[in-house]
Design goal:
The protein is of the alpha/beta class and 208 residues long. Helix content is 33%, strand content 11%. The chain has 8 helices and 5 strands. It has a 3-stranded parallel beta sheet, with no helix packed on it. α3 packs across α5. The relative contact order is 0.11. The mean pLDDT is 93.
Length: 208
């Protein structure tokens, strides 16, 4: 099961930018573009989950990468989801379970860590961020999701943008992003400005 709220906060939704910056707001777009040193940031929202699979069924989506979820089971109208994945020319699935209803339809399956094998942070339903520490070794070739994303991004030519060596570096970058727009005292809804100086040692000591 994915860290759903945590994923939303770092830009995992198709209709919002990371740290609750919004599409359609020129200032948000400029702020995020400058922070990430990019001139190619998306200017409009993408497709939400159901719309994505509808577009796949219509042949508009040629490739999809599914992580930490099993949409053939978890989304409504499972036969439609299955058909969409069968039609999609290239399907990648990252999962900690080798054989699921979704991995059976994948062209490539990437071995991911399960929750007890991961280190990172989790955001709960009241928006509290908790430090997660691995308690079990990873089996076989299983890797953290962030590491898999980093390796693929680097192979695509984004070495400087994805040069993270530890999940704590990603959390620090996220904290820095939430601080944007909060420097003047006019606070946004999300602000972790107090953690922007966190180093790897400090990240390791975070509680709970």
């Amino acid at each position: 099961q994915p860290n759903a709220m945590g994923g939303r906060e770092v830009g995992g939704l198709a209709n919002t930018l990371a740290a609750h910056f919004e599409f359609g707001d020129p200032q948000s777009h400029q702020t995020v573009s400058e922070f990430w040193h990019t001139d190619s940031l998306a200017t409009r929202a993408g497709l939400k989950a159901i719309d994505l699979f509808d577009a796949m069924n219509e042949g508009k989506i040629k490739a999809v990468w599914i992580m930490a979820t099993n949409p053939v089971v978890s989304l409504p109208d499972s036969e439609k989801i299955k058909t969409a994945l069968e039609k999609c020319p290239f399907v990648v699935v990252s999962d900690c379970i080798a054989d699921t209803e979704t991995t059976r339809l994948a062209d490539v399956v990437l071995p991911a860590q399960g929750w007890s094998e991961k280190s990172g942070t989790v955001t709960n339903s009241e928006r509290r961020i908790s430090r997660q520490r691995r308690v079990l070794p990873s089996p076989g070739e299983a890797k953290p999701d962030w590491w898999i994303l980093k390796e693929v991004a680097q192979k695509m030519g984004f070495k400087d943008q994805f040069d993270h060596r530890h999940e704590g570096q990603i959390f620090k970058e996220y904290c820095e992003m939430t601080a944007l727009g909060n420097e003047t005292g006019k606070a946004r809804d999300l602000c972790l400005i107090g953690l922007t100086k966190l180093d790897e040692k400090g990240y390791g000591e975070l509680t709970p």
